[in-house]
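Task: fold both queries, return tokens.
Query 1:
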Amino acid sequence: MSADRPGPARRRRVGRNARPNKPPADSPDRGAEAAEVAAHLRRNTLIQLAHGLFGQPGFRLVSAPTFLPAYLFMLSGSDFVVGLARSLQGAGTVASPMLGASLIGHRKRFLGVTLASSALMRAQILGVALAGFVLGGTSGSTGSPAIAAVVAITVFLAFMGFFQGVAQVTMNALRAKVIPINRRGIVSGARHFLAGLVSAGISYVAGAYLIETNALGNGYASVFLLAFGITCIGLVALALTHEPTATSLRPRASMTETFKAVGPILRGQPAFRRFFVARALASCGSMALPFYVLYAGTRMELSGANLGLLTTVWMLTSSTANLIWGALADRYGYKVVMVVTLACWIASHVQLLFVEDVIGVVVFFMLMGSAYGGFSQSGQNMVLEFGRPADIPIRLAASGSAVNLVGAIGPFVGGVMVALTGYVAMFVATTVLQVVALAMILIAVPEPRYGVR
């Protein structure tokens, strides 16, 4: 019996205990929706590419494991503060995916919700930039301007995380509506390739010119202001999406009811449940992300030019590799991509332990960059392929919340470990956790595209 269609006894039990969350049957005729998707596929594909080309580079400047950690460390002089700031950003994303699922699960169209959550997320990047300009803090002093800047940036990052959690669900659910399953890999890969090329050029300019010359009186704040402007162009492109009318919906539910709906889905879909656990465990790699560049600082000078170089390498390798990962996923499914990229990520941690100079750091960012982007995309896209279309928002929210919880706790734990035991112990712990996750994916998680139980 398919895990996606529980037997009569199962349906009656779910109905009695959680009537508002009882999954509806899929529409008997989804032909009209499929025809609408096909009719506007070229337009929506171009819009997805344009959104990636402009929207992603700006966010990558903020999320890159280089600029923001280096700026926070310059202001605070503390590894712990860097980890804490990233943890609070992650904390904002923990519960908000469920809000995103409750906002769109019952809607035939939800492009407006997607645009609103994306705009609010972009506003926080502007806040980070303004905090740098208004509150000052361009040196590593412990004076009140630097402290105020760190506090303000941390607050904006927390709000950014909250709206990012909502946008993760709405954006991915929208992409699942407008791009067929057999085209998502190549479209996703092309988006990231184009975004990576633009990001690489912008990153080099940001490091070598904006930061190196302390543009506008604060080079780092200028980088984040540039990031805000670029992301706004991507949002305009996204607004042109032709969204088909959904034929498979869940009943309208509050955020609490959406939380309650996760349990039946996890119990009724064991394959998704195993994937849920394995992806969350593999995401423990986020514990190390803010500290890569700080560890690199013990092996090389963290000048603006070097930060620009490392960020450029990270983005170029990530974008180029995503073309390969996308084509591989369309042909063989996303499990293969998840396994290969997680193995590469683990290998990069091992290589990092033996780095002694600039060349070694660059090699690490090449290896880690090619793996990290592919792993993130494979996890987000694989979620879409388990179970029924009506449950996509809840599956996205549940898996996203688990990954985000790890992302919230990880940098904080990493900061504590670095403060107490040093970088090496933290990297070793991260590697061990990811090896366990890799074994679980290989053994217990099936490829959903070919049918699961």
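Query 1 returned. Query 2:
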Amino acid sequence: MARRPMNTFGNLLRAILLLSVCLVRPVAAQPLGIACCDADRLYDTIPSLFYDDTDYTPQGRLRWNTTRYRRKIACMAALVDSLALPIIALQNVENETVVRDISAACTGDYIYLHRTLNTLDGMDFALLYYGDLFFPHYVEPGRRYLYVEGTLRRPVGRKPGRRFRTDTLGLLLCGEARTIGRTIGELRDEHPGTRLVVMGRLPEHELEKYGLQDALARAEQAGRGNVRSTSGWRMRDRIAVDTLLRIVAGDVYIRRFLLDPAETRPLATYDRRRSVGGTSRALPIYVYLE
């Protein structure tokens, strides 16, 4: 039987087309990691003139003194360094002094952003971030929320430093689920085109009507949560992501040093009035985005 001649020109053409597709295909930016941590009412030791923090003073009910404060700062810094993510939101910190002390105790090169929210308990939100990747240009504190909008600069490909992709990212930190709908609606109107990432106390349902997707839905369906009660693990805090962003991974951050060695639960700072020296009664949550 006669041998069929090779179609050399056709093979060459297909190879050129395949090479051209590979060359023009956009290289994805490296995934962005964002975490949200509850500092579990991290006060300094100085009495406030504007709200009642007497429990968290050396003469108060909890005997909150410099030694305990420094230990809590060291715990929070160890958590931030363990996460090692470029953007970390902090909940329930009293003031800028507390945030500055956490940042100074970290080995990572973090810049901090803090705003006073004028809440009845004195608790604020703050942001730790890498200054070479995220550049805030708008900050709006409100009732139990903090909104930070900035330019995100992410390395493209496997060799950081050569090419970067920039996006406008809006970070919304929330402490009250019932007001989140109105807040998001106003932000959508005032900042159209900004890709939102919402963290903190969020409603369990109806996030999609705000153009958001629950980054921790799979983790919750698998039975994981970031707080422990008598009925089991519960996802008290959430991260919701703009539908224009792709979720690579989202979960609860669990490490042995965050857990009570005697029980399977987060190790809090206090067990009722007894100091146990833990980090928080709530585990951190995180998401990776493309």
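Both queries returned. Flag for query 2: The longest strand covers residues 32-42.
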